[in-house]
Amino acid sequence: MTTKIYDIWHYQKDENDSSHYNDPLIIIRNVCDLMLEAFDENPDTFLLITDDKQRGYPICLDNNMQIYLSTAGNTYWAQNAYQLSHELCHHFIKKKTPIDNNSWFEESICELASIYFLSETASLWSNSTNAVKLFYSSSITEYISELLISRSNIDLKQLSIQSSALYKEMNADPYLRDNNNYIATKLLPIFKKTPSLWEDIYLIRKLNIKDLNTFFTKWSQLAKKENVGSILEISELFL
């Protein structure tokens, strides 16, 4: 059975999970609200979010009308939020620009979305008058702490060298999660300082450019004026 989030956005929790108490819809709605505001989006196209443990992995389908989560269960709220933030980031990027390029960078940005919006949720809930939110805020903070433990240590500047082993590796397989996570942690302070960057994230798919120097130059040219300085900061991590 699906539950309405907005008029044409619906959520279906894992019906095979017997733990029907502590319905995760509360954090699902929270993540959707935060991300719609940050990306300056509206829930004006159909979207079904389904949690299906049997699927084995979360995904935003190519038709961009369905997101599958694959969490450990309905009581794992932080994992629900982590997976949804990642896939909803893909959804917003695909919504405006169907061309796929710079895949490793998009994957890293969506990993960043998971950390960023979990952090926003923990901050809001830690000051909430809602007893449930207040109780769960510390668990979410602990979950974030685990995400911020680097399991990779790569030289980001190698990603601007097309002949480097790292560049070839990341372009051959953009889903190297430890590397994506490492990149995300380096980007996090910049996005914390300039949250409006989320409004210009869709541009990363629009730019079909292999050369990172040109990519960042074009991104800054197309971005909102208030985001240009932060895009320069991002480029300095890689160039």
Mean of pLDDT: 92
Multimerization status: single chain
Task: Characterize the biggest β-sheet.
Answer: 5 strands, mixed
Number of strands: 5
- Cα shape: globular
Helix content: 40-55%
Per DSSP, what share of the residues sits in E-state strands of 2 or more residues? 5-15%
Going across the biggest sheet, name each strand in turn.
Answer: 1-2-3-5-4
Give the distance, in angstroms, between the N- and C-terminal Cα atoms.
49 Å
Uncertain residue segments: none
Which series of helices and strands comes N to C?
A: EEHEEEHHHHHHHH
Query: What is the structural class?
Result: alpha/beta
Care to give the gist of this entry?
With 239 residues, the chain is an alpha/beta fold. The chain is built from 9 helices and 5 strands; from the N terminus they run ββαβββαααααααα.
